Amino acid sequence: MRRLIFIVPILVFVGLTIYFATPLLRGTDPSLIPSPLIDKPVPAFELPPLPGYQKGLSSGDLKGQVQIVNIFASWCIPCRAEAPALMTLKNMNIPIQGINQKDKPADALEYLKELGDPYVSIGMDIDRKVSIDWGAYGAPETFIVDAEGRIRYKQAAPITQDDIDNTIVPLINKLRAGK
Amino acid sequence: MRRTFAIIALALSLAGPALAVEPSEMLKDPAQEARAQAIGRQLRCPVCKTESIEESDADFTRDLRKVVREQIAAGKSDKEVLNFMHDRYGDFILLRPPFKPTTWALWLAPPAILVLGGIFAFFMTRRRPTTPEAAPLTAAEKAEVEALK
User: Fold this and answer.
1) How does pLDDT run across A19-70, given as a tens digit for each residue?
2) Within-domain flag for A101
3) Closest residue in B to A128 (Cα–Cα)
4) Domain B14-121 maps to which CATH number in 3.20.20.30, 3.40.980.10, 1.10.150.120, 1.10.8.640?
5) A116 touches chain B (CB under 8 A)
6) Residue B142 touches chain A, beta carbons under 8 Å
């Protein structure tokens, strides 16, 4: 019985190892914050268009079909990295709506000229108020919104081809099928 | 020398956490500003994770501070401002998260470890066998000691 007490530290160690190894092996990023907005309706908002564009973006635009909402900015370096991935999604006929976060309009236009414009429409979120309503804490952030205008997925990291193949497209297909 | 150390130690102990709030961000009413800072200190910076939004210098956090101050100026209560942030960022944003099943481990682990450690220490110190009295020397050993003298 007294010997058992010496086994306790080993058991604790094994427990801690499992606890810490699981997220490491699964590849979970602990710096990502789970969003409480999943399965909630998109926040009500109305953002003005970039200069020279016809239309801004408002919550009304996010109903009727499954869409992606992408928060981007010209100052955001990872946004540049994910720009080709957004083009891939656009070419797959997946509508992407843009929220341009805390940008100078001229810089945003320059950015779109340089990297291409994958967005159906873009709203300018100059003071970050709408980004905060979306529970964003930076850029890029990507959301999938279903046809009823509910947020079904959030990714607070640049989109990779792997994300498109294994997460985004399967989820969009599922949502389009009405499940 | 000793006095210098004492002065440095005193100065360090008096230093509070540095706030990142800039004078231009502050509310004009000192009472409202004090409330904003008290709320901000309860909110965790989502960008830097280990600081409150009052301490963080991240650009995004500056805008969160601004929202806190705007809401206070608009007459919202402390609770309403905290709820606003909690609705958007979840338990993560609260430096003092609510007590619920997913946070039981967080809240209960420190007292549990203290209690278990206390019980362990109590039994270990009480049951430790005292060192037995040294056995008296045998005749042969006594003779050896004598020989050494």
Assistant:
1) 999 888 887 777 778 899 999 999 999 999 999 999 999 999 999 999 999 9
2) yes
3) B63
4) 1.10.8.640
5) no
6) no
